[in-house]
Model the fold of this input.
Amino acid sequence: MRRERMRLSSAVVAAALVLSASACSSSAARCEEEFTAVTTSITGVASATFDCSDQFGGGWQRGDVVVEATTEDEAIAVMDAILRAYAASPDIEDRWATPQEYVNQDGSIIVGANDLGFNGAPRVREVREHYGITPG
Done:
């Protein structure tokens, strides 16, 4: 009887781990899909790719965003539009981090959220507070 309970307990633990891992991977996929969809909907974005992880006890979000800009001011304007779109999207979670930098197509211009008054790459919660935007 005791051996049977141990097998049952092991099976339950294994099932829980599989479910947790699939929940993490689906959460990461949702993060990547949402960030990509919102980012590429902005005029002036040439391309965007995201890599998200939602592991036990934390996670991370990384984005590579290429903007169509020939001046730093144009790149900052596109980045500003992107950040405002993140803030307005109800599908992007407060805890997710925004990209660290935004680069133009030839790599000659690199801007970051510090150019808009942020202290480094902000989380979406900080972007919403900064712009006073509540997702709708």
Notes: Residues 24 and 55 are 6 Å apart (CA to CA).
